[in-house]
Amino acid sequence: MNKYKKWYEQIVQRAKDRVLNGYYERHHILPRSLGGLDIPENIVCLTAREHFICHWLLTKFTVGEERDKMIYALRMMRTNNSGQRYTSKITARVYENLKTDYSEIQRQRILGENNPMYGKKFYRSEEGRIKQAQSVSGDNNGAKQSQSRKKISESKRGKKRDPFNPEWLEKIAESNRGENNGMYGKNHSVDAKFKMRDKALGRKQSEETIRKKADAVRGSKREKKLCPHCEQMIAVNTYARWHGDNCKQNHSS
């Protein structure tokens, strides 16, 4: 008998013959991942230290796929949601062997044809691309669901973002100027323009959005510019469309 298996059975047998009054953890003698049942006959109560040692011993006398499962189980015993289940220390050698073995298992899992990027996979076909797009569009996209959008909105409400660094803003602007702009030298087709028009047609802003926009500009003075043709002071945001060269009083155009 393997010495590690002998030590394992000794701990299990000792646990069967005693009653723990303090903190203990339930341990499946034959792990469920190896076919063990969740029944009293297959469960013993161990101290936290014993539980950890038992899972370490399981990695020493199991082989093949069963050993892979035990390595994964031992690795998970070191963590929980907060990142640490046990504060007890393990030796550097045990930790190194555990991480090395786990890394090799993960490498084998995605080797060759098991790698999702290997060869011509379904999602690379046109049909696969369409299905992939549909799986994250509309209601299938968790971030776009009304409940998720509400949570995101509530998490940001009342928080003010720090102003952006001017140098960073300039770099972003420069990266989209001239030939770097995706629309440089291109024009929207008539069909694309009609699609954008149809999408925006009839769109109404909520009362809350209208109020927020009004509150944002209320009390601020818009910059104005003198139109040389009608001699009126016009807000700069509408000047180019209705005044200047496009002014009705511009008889030279």
Please tell me about this protein's structure.
This protein is mainly alpha-helical. Among the domains are: 3-113, no CATH class; 221-253, no CATH class. It has 10 helices and 4 strands, in the order αββααααααααββα. The chain has a two-stranded antiparallel ribbon with strand order 1-2. Helix 2 (48-61) runs antiparallel to helix 3 (64-76) and helix 3 crosses helix 4 (92-109). The protein is elongated and about 105 Å long. The N and C termini lie far apart (102 Å).
How much helix, percentage-wise, in residues? 40-55%
Distance between the termini: 102 Å
Round the mean pLDDT to the nearest integer and report it.
83
Apparent shape = elongated
Main beta-sheet annotation:
2 strands, antiparallel
How many distinct beta strands?
Answer: 4
Index terms:
253 residues; mainly alpha; two-stranded antiparallel ribbon; 10 helices; 46% helix
